[in-house]
Every structure is written in structure tokens, then in C-alpha cells.
Amino acid sequence: STQKPISSGFQTNEYADAQLQEIIRKMRERATVYKEKLNDPVLSSPEGTPSKKPPPPPKEEKKEEKKEEAEIKPEEDHYCDMLCCKFKKPPLKKYKEYLQLPESIDSYTDRRYVAWLMLVTVAYNWNCWFIPLRFVFPYQTPSNIKYWVAIDVICDICYLCDLLIFQPRVQFLKGGDIISDKVEMKKFYHSSVKFRLDVISVLPFDVLYFFFGFNPALRANRMLKHNTFFEFNDRLEAILDKAYIYRVIRTTGYLLFILHVNACLYYWASDYEGLGSTRWVYDGEGNMYLRCYYWAVRTLITIGGLPEPQTLFEIIFQLLNFFLGVFVFSSLIGQMRDVIGAATAGQNYYRSCMDNTVSYMNTYSIPRLVQNRVRTWYEYTWDSQGMLDESELLEQMPVKMQLAIAIDVNFAIVNKVDLFKGCDTQMIYDMLLRLKSIVYLPGDFVCKKGEIGREMYIIKQGEVQVLGGPDGTKVLVTLKAGAVFGEISLLAAGGGNRRTANVVAHGFANLFILDKKTLNEILVHYPDSEKLLKKKAKVLLKAKGKPAPGPPVQQPRGLAGLFGQKPETPKMFKALLGGKGKEGLAKLLQLKRQQDTQVTPQKIDIGKHLHFCFQETSAEAQNKPEQEEKKPVEPTASSAPPEQKKEPNVDTKPKPSTIQRETSKESLIISMSPSPTAGEGEILKVEVKEKKQK
């Protein structure tokens, strides 16, 4: 027979063929995903977790607001031309708004109020330091009196502004409520002791200058405004990062002021006794203030080496100085010790913990290598976060404050984790309060292969390496800040999942740990997030359970790729064929000839007699005697009506498969049909017919 030559007129475009293959692959994947979605309602669409979108009207309103802001901004921009440069400056309106005095003042958060208190404190310190100085020492003279009076007037203006403008606007608490009403704030201030002292401190005793001369003692009432001074100290310490530095400076100022007052008293006593009248009094030579201040320092600190007092007044004055010096100096030294001790309390606690740990390791002869790693952990933990355990600090605060701090510190890291994207934000907030921070040293094993996984890890800072390979030293991947590992052990429903690789800290690594029990306690209150995590757990477990990819299968070219690959031959027919082509059919035909000489279709129940075919196949493979292979098989009694034994109809039953042998005059027809009796499965029908003579 001659074969017709294949026409070469049809040619395929490789680019078009590749595009068609890609479209078919995507359509199949999409169909598979949506089938899974129909079967499992927990799964969401392949586009990712849907987020709640605001309705269109708010979006339009936001766009309109943005347009209005954009239109306003060019009007607010002001530029100043200076020489060859052009500088942008804020408009005067903004300066006025910032400097405008508010209706009510929050004394705890308003920085402008703290700045005003500082100005009043400067005026108060001027009066406290220079009123005694001007009263005792002859520094105020008719030639410079105008300068002293001018500065006094400025200080008095500050006092009056504070009394009339600022203090009546300060908010206060009443029954837990913040009162910001003008009338209530004024009434509260006017009923306080502070108001009475402020009024006394601004009484104009200066008018008595016209009767008694310019005597600075008439301004002694200005030193009663001490409440403002202490309020400024409290507010300033609250906003400073290192308040202990200011406390040390303030305590030093107290000491210097006491020495200043003592120096003024010594000059007054010397003037009372007569300058240079005895060896104990000031002799009037040199700088009078420095000489008196030097004497006050040596007296209060009890250094000694001073001239002996001669008169009764001098002896009493010196005794009072000694007693006062011991009391004041010891008090100030104790206060200084408390300030420095409070500033270094954390450092002392760290040293104490480290010393106790080192002592414990030496007692039990811990190896030197382990001791060095423990010391390294202490030093790095203290240097990186300033404390050994952050939870001790947060436990003293209410839960809301703990959450606020945790959000500011850790929310940006946890929110980047793909595993928790789409989950309820409040669930993430609750999880932030349960996370535990642990520091790992370089080379520490975070988890080892084969361990039971009970927690997951989130990298807060640093890097970790996943090791594998035959010897377990090959770096498979390096994970950085924000990465997650161990989540399969956390999300698996059955539990007992073992670690599949070693994870080692590359450098100093700070990790968050979340165990399975804690996560389950949180998810009880968030069912939607629980469903989402279950969906992601299924995807992760499915991806983990996939076999390793084999060699790539060559895709058929042309239009053949549109129909997919040919399905594999069913195992039942493979067993029936005997595994070697036509030899299995030959055995079956020999069996049928011996069993039934008539051309009658025989039915074999699959559930009872299909094992015979497998016996025949295995017998042939083991070269058993042919007599054992021809063991007769009794046909099963048919429960179907006689009409069903005829040749199956093409319209109502599946089309039978016909296999012809060239060396025989018979044709073999094999077909399957459902059993009419419930529970018996399907029936395999084999028919042997003689070929018709042409």
C-alpha cells in the first residue's frame, strides 16, 4: 500500500502557539481555583483578600477636599527675595495663629505654657538673687539706680501678666473631668492659695521709695512667687529626655543660692560689727562679694582654718553657721546622691544581675565559652534596648497604654508580614501585646531540624539563615527583618509538625515569638481572621506537600496542545491485557474457547472474578505450567433479563471497545455496564464473535 504524502501547506506560528498555551494554562488554573472555592467557602478569590472599600460618595468628597486644599496652598505660599536668592517663608497669618493665646491652656502638653513659665522663673530668680545682694552690698548707687529700676519693672510686668492672663486660663481636673470653661477656670484659680501668694507678690510696695528711698528690701514680697518656680521644674522634667541632668543642675543651684545668702549675711554681720574692726570680720579689701562668698563656703562646708570669733555676736553667728552648714550641706549631698542614684538605677540593676549570673556560673563551673556568651548577651541586650526585660516596664501601665506603646514600636513590623495581611486590625493589636521579644547571639540555633514546632518567629531586627544540604551547613536562604518562619507549625490543625531545617542567627537577631496556644486564645474572638488564617494554612500545607518537580514535559506543538495530554490507560484494562500487548488477550481467548463453545456473550462480575485476570498475568510472569493457567471459571448467574445479553445499543450504553486479532477468526468485544442490582458495582462483558466472510 502506498502512503499519501503529508501536506506541508499548514504551518504553525511559534509565538501564537506559546500565547495559546499560556492562555489555556491560566484558564485551567482559574477554573481549578473557583472549583475549590465552590467546594470550600473559606477560600477566597485568587486576587487576594478583599478589603472593605468606602462607598463612591465619600471618595468624591475626598477628591473635592483635596482639590480645595490644592487651590488654597498656592495662595499661602510666600517668598522673600534676598540678594540673588529666593527664600520661602510662612505667612504672617500663621505666626499670629501660633502666637495667639488659646482660650484654655493644658499645662501638661502645651510647650508655650512651659516657655512662659521659664520666663516667669527667670524673673523670680532675679528677685531672689539680687534683692539680698542689693540690700546688703553697696552695689546699688544713685548713678545706676535707673538700670535696677528698669529691670525691676520688667519683672513686675511678667508677674502681672502671669496673674491676669495665663493662670486664669489653665485647665484643671474636677471629678476626673478636664474643666476648660472660662468662668470655672477663673473661679478655681481665684479660690486657690497660689492666687493669694501671687497677689501678695505683686503688691506695689515700691511706692514707698518716695518716702524711705530706694531700699531693695521693699521688694522682698516678690520672692513669694515660688509656686511658679516649682511648677516650671515639674513641667520641664516631664518633657526632658534626660531629666536627671536638670535635677543635678537644680540641686547645685540650691547649694549656690544658700552660699550666696550666707555670704550676704556675713557682709551684713561684718558691717554691723565694723569692717576691719576684728580679725573675724571682713576687712574691706579686695572684691567684697568674692571674699564673703569664700568665707561662706568654708563655713558651711566646715573646712575650718578661719579666724576665731572675738565677740559674743561673732561667736553666736559662727555657731549658727556651723549648725546650719552641717544640716544644709548634708541634706544637699543626700539629695544629690538620690538624684544620681535614680539616674543610674537601671545601670546598677544590670550590673547586679550580671554579677549574680557570673557568680552562679563560677559556682557550678560552667565552661568559659558559655560564660562569654552569657556576658555577650547581657551587654548587647542592655546596649540595644536599655533594659533587660521590656515587659517589666510595661506591666506597670494600663492595658491601653501598653497597646499604644506596642503599636508605635512594633506595629509597622508585624503589619508587613504577609501571613497577617487581611486580618482584623484589632486582632493584630491583641497579638502585639502577647508577642515575646528574645535576643539571639551570632551562631545560636533558633530551631533545629526534627524538633516539634510549637511557635512561629517574626524577625524584628537582624538576620537568620536557613541551613540544609547533606551536612546541614549549606545556606539555603537568608531571612531579614519582617520575615516569618515556623508558621506552618503554628497553623497546622493536627499539631506535632517537626522542623524541616536548621535556623541559625547570622548576627545579633531580635525575634518576636508567638506560640500556638496564645494565637488560638486570640482567634476565639475573631472568627473572620481565623477563617482567613485557615485558608492560608491550607495553601501553605498544600505547597509544602507538593512533590519535587520532575523534568519538564515537552508540550505538543500545533493545535494538539489545545486538548491536553491523553489520559492514562485504566489499571483494570492494563491487568486485563496482561501487560504485554496481545499475549493477555490470547490467554483470555483460549479460556473462552474451553469454557463455552457457543458464540454467547458471557458476563463476569468485576467484584468476584476480576482477580482471575490478575492471577493469569502473574502466572505468565512466573512461567507456571499451562495446565494451571487453564483453570475454568464458573460464570456468575445473571440477574439481568435476557434482553440485556444482546449486543449493547450504541445510544443507551457506552460504545464497546473492539480488538481484532489478525491470526484468528474471532473478534473480542469488551464493554462495561452498571449492574441492575444495587450495591454490586459494574459488570464487565466480554463477547467473542467470528468474523464474517467477505
From TrEMBL:
Q: Which residues form a coiled coil?
A: none
What subcellular compartments does it reside in? Membrane
Task: Region Disordered: list its residue ranges.
Answer: 36-71, 619-694
CDD domains, sorted? CAP_ED
Domain of life, source organism: Eukaryota
For bias kind Basic and acidic residues, which ranges apply?
58-71, 623-633, 643-654, 682-694
**Entry-linked SMART domains:** cNMP
Ordered alphabetically, the record's keywords are: cGMP, cGMP-binding, Ion channel, Ion transport, Ligand-gated ion channel, Membrane, Nucleotide-binding, Sensory transduction, Transmembrane, Transmembrane helix, Transport, Vision
Q: Does the keyword Transmembrane helix apply?
A: yes
Which stretches make up the Cyclic nucleotide-binding domain?
419-523
**How is this protein situated with respect to the membrane?**
Multi-pass membrane protein
Reactions catalysed = Na(+)(in) = Na(+)(out); K(+)(in) = K(+)(out)
List the molecular function annotations (GO) for this entry: cGMP binding; intracellularly cAMP-activated cation channel activity; intracellularly cGMP-activated cation channel activity; protein-containing complex binding
Q: Which GO terms describe its cellular component?
A: intracellular cyclic nucleotide activated cation channel complex; photoreceptor outer segment; plasma membrane
Task: Name a single GO biological process.
Answer: visual perception
Q: Which residues cross the membrane?
A: 113-133, 195-214, 244-268, 312-333
> Which PANTHER family does the UniProt entry name for this protein?
CYCLIC NUCLEOTIDE-GATED CATION CHANNEL BETA-3, CYCLIC NUCLEOTIDE-GATED CATION CHANNEL SUBUNIT A
This chain belongs to the protein called CNGB3 protein
In the UniProt record, the gene name given for this protein reads Cngb3
